[in-house]
Backbone:
């Protein structure tokens, strides 16, 4: 399994916004620059995040984007589903009637992969952006610590 590039960029955006005081607004150009994301691609990703109610969008002179929820209330799972939709490890986990083997989701592999997928989703839901932002700050401090 591999998350697409848009999901990686969305992680960066939400992580950066989570390191800012809650309610902070940032314009797209600044988010693109600080997160190293092509600005044109950023705007597409922002639509996903706004539609999923993870970000607020503001128009006009004082426009920009802010977190719609506190970082502790945004999980990795929320970001993945905002960008990629529901993620399935195997085709038959979401469309068992069209199994090319004709087993309609009744096979040992499907059962095993379904358990793995459920565990993966559970783990993604456990990781919130408040925790990630705190870790990001400590990494940043240790990298720039002068002895």
Residues:
């Amino acid at each position: 399994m591999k998350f697409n590039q848009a999901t990686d960029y969305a992680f960066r955006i939400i992580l950066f916004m989570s390191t800012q005081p809650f309610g902070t607004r940032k314009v797209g150009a600044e988010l693109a620059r600080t997160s190293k994301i092509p600005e044109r691609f950023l705007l597409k990703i922002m639509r996903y995040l706004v539609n999923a109610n993870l970000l607020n969008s503001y128009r006009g002179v004082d426009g920009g984007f802010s977190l719609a929820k506190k970082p502790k209330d945004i999980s990795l799972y929320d970001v993945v589903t905002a960008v990629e939709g529901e993620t399935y490890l195997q085709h038959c986990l979401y469309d068992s009637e069209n199994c090319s083997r004709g087993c309609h989701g009744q096979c040992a592999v499907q059962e095993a992969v379904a358990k793995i997928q459920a565990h993966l989703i559970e783990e993604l839901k456990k990781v919130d952006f408040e925790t990630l932002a705190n870790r990001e700050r400590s990494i940043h401090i240790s990298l720039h610590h002068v002895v």
Q: What stands out?
A: The radius of gyration is 18 Å.
